[in-house]
Fold this protein.
Amino acid sequence: MSSPKAPSWARLCIVLGTILTVLAGAAIVAKEALFSYALRGVDQQNLLGDAGNQGRQPGHASLTGAKNILLVGVDARPGQDPNEPVRSDSIIIVHIPASYDAAFLVSIPRDTWVRIPAYDNGAREYPGGNDKINAAFAYGGSGLTGPAARSRAVELLARTIRNVWGVTFDAAGIVDFTGFQQVVNVLGGVDMYVDQETTSVSIGHNSRGGTEVPFRQYTRDDGGQGLDPVPGVTPVVYHVGYQHLEPWQALDYVRQRETLPNGDYDRQRHQQQFIKAVFKRMLGTDMLTNPVRFNKVVEVVGKAMTIDSGGIDLADWAYAMRGVSGDDVVTIKTNEGTFNQSAGHGTAEDLDQKTVNLLTAVRTDQVTGFLAAHPELVAGG
């Protein structure tokens, strides 16, 4: 993407395809010995701090009870000052019911207006206040760099979610876009259903067959994103239907929002669908029966993300989730897939009551029943 502000996209993507996929897949294919070997490069770090449930079920253990995983994606701008705060680009709650037979994906819109609690990360003190939820990640890591910044950023985001909706987390993951590109390359792309015609604002072709940016982006007077077509450049268009997306196509597709009628909500849905596609690809027969290739996938995943396993051994996560396949990953709409304007807060939005009730169902492990009563919230794909 050539825009100076990297568009949000669920880097989320890989994270789930990592925590869930890698875990479940490895246990099936390689047994604990190969699994432990494959995960040697996965960066593990305490991301949740005091905001997580770590310590309730430490070390080797048979997992019991419902689990929630916080997935955070970031996409720092090229050349960005490492001391400049980075807002989370994607926020996803992965709810695993106590039955361990499914995984529910709930995206929290990054512009959701919330109360962020006061927080001292050791470098800077944030007094607390109202802001968009993705600012919690920025304030948590402000003044820090590297692992310390990641840890504090995720912790404040988790605290915010806990304080506002009562949802607590047993594990977390954070992934960057650059690393995700490498993972999709190793997978060789993904097979997925494109559910609406999507025009790329970042990749187009000129009359000579060269690649150029098809639109010039600017900020309108109302604060929205404006697009001016570049003469002589035809944008790439993703048409509706089942298809194989090459790595560059898949990554470009899930980043688009400016040309979609519901903006971030359409992109959130595509990101969730992409997670399922990556999950299924990683659990494909050709992957599970080829330890060398599987190890290569895990190797690049390990370089692309950081995991907080919540004090639970990764092998135990894998065993508990051995029955979850790509078809068991359920993507859920928030705010019924549309922007819900927050009164008096400009470009921010609020969660509607149905979404608040959904988060209550996440907290109480009643998601299956809630969706049975509200099937319209299950996203397609």
